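Running this now, will post back.
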Amino acid sequence: MSAQVRAGAALALSGRYAFGGRDAARGLQAWADDAGVRLTIVDATSDDVQTARAIRELVGRHDLVFGPYGSGPMRAVQRELAGSPWVIWNHGAAAARPSPIRQIDVLAPAERYWLGLPDVLCERGIELGHVVLVAAPSPFSRRLAAGARDALAAHGATPLWVGELRPLAAAAAVAHAVRLGAQAIIGCGRREDDLALAGALRGTRLAVALVLCGIDGAASDLGRALVGWIGPTQWPPDGPQPVFGLPTGAQYPAAQAAAAGMVAHAAMAVAGSADPDALWAAGVALRMQTHLGRFSVDRDGRQTGACPSLVDWVETRWGLERRTIWSPDASDHAPLDEPPDP
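Update: finished.
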């Protein structure tokens, strides 16, 4: 690989997904600068059609192509590239499965977000049969909910009630949970769903688990109500930094994108070229460690190594802070082979 590697990405630098897209762009750029990769980032404007078209323009002209932030835009890419040979490195779409394309997932799937939650709830004295689950009507939310139900089932429990979560009906859902005698509520929604549910939960005694609670920015959204609330994170606050570091203020989309760059570059080194068949075979076979944890995928490119940690919020002398309260068992997620030197 003597010639400079060319990488491309279609990311939302504006619109609904701009938070994740801009942060992912910073992570990819940090990796590219360190690795000496020439990176092109196209603004996909949070539009599914434009995202798919942008990816179509990038493949074949770049050695490595990274997908968008957001499962909806990624599914548009899947429709656009279905049946093509190109490899797409997925760093920001946790619910874009099954996939009709050669998609290699670097982040853990949505179904694993709540894997450790039953252990945490039991430690807090919560009876798992008194847990309510509410899910928004979206593909991402349904996958979150399926994973939460499976996690409870692994502990011999079923939810006390499973309800639909819509922002305008959040208060009614919380009131119903309280009437049923729930001890905890698991929210499986998008940011707007979690914000509505969080507002309705203020002042209740329910244990709370929301996806929003896993990210640093939740403190500015929810304030002191966050204390004790639980959330999943692909990159815990006490987790390692990539060897090249990330820009100040970078959050989980940047960490995920940077990891995708590391993995893709390592796979290309193994493949010896950007030939799609060789790159796909190398990516599927690759085993390595990144700051997100263990990377390994199955023969369809689905992530099998990484698993989110769980955090909760505490009030400190410096303000609200996240702390890690559950991590994947070290014996199941031990470091594997180091990546080859690109």
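DSSP finds ten helices and 14 strands in the chain. More later if anyone needs it.
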